[in-house]
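About this split. The held-out portion is used to measure sequence recovery: a designer receives only the structure tokens and must propose an amino acid at every position. Recovery is the fraction of positions where the proposal matches the reference. Here is one held-out target exactly as it appears in the evaluation file.
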């Protein structure tokens, strides 16, 4: 957005590179249009661009890995004012964001809290911007990373668990 009271610019599919196929241009326009429900959702954007529902998920993923589409998305995001520098600035501002909560006492008096850190909205907006640029790991990549971390934390105890016979003997000794 270029001004505080202005509506966000809508990406125009006709201005996106002519080197791309028409459906790819539409895909980028739907993917980067903040006024549509397809914004940031590659599968919905692919369906809206005219790809079949069966293949939309695969094609959307494929489109996001193509360098020419990635550069077009980055160009549209820059045009909309969502540059990486802007995202970094927003993140820094978000670290200092404050919110005040209002409470009513039993006497009907209004009491204001101390300024509290309010990061959720700014963090989500910044995360979305980085996702759109391909700078944030996908859910699948996050799962792989957490799986690797889990594997690194597994400790194998020498000797392992006791044999089933040992458990049976202990039970017999307790019952005798």
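Reference sequence for scoring:
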């Amino acid at each position: 957005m270029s001004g505080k009271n202005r509506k966000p610019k809508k990406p125009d599919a006709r201005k996106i590179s002519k080197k791309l196929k028409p459906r790819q241009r539409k895909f980028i326009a739907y993917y980067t249009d903040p006024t549509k429900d397809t914004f940031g959702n590659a599968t919905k954007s692919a369906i809206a661009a005219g790809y079949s529902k069966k293949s939309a998920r695969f094609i959307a993923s494929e489109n996001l890995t193509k360098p020419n589409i990635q550069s077009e998305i980055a160009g549209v995001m820059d045009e909309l004012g969502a540059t990486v520098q802007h995202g970094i600035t927003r993140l820094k501002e978000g670290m200092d964001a404050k919110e005040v909560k209002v409470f009513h006492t039993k006497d009907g008096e209004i009491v204001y809290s101390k300024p509290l850190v309010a990061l959720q909205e700014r963090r989500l907006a910044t995360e979305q911007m980085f996702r759109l640029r391909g700078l944030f790991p996908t859910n699948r990549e996050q799962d792989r990373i957490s799986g690797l971390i889990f594997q690194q934390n597994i400790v194998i105890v020498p000797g392992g668990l006791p044999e089933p016979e040992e458990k049976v003997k202990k039970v017999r000794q307790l019952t005798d």
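Annotator remark: The two ends are 81 Å apart (CA to CA).
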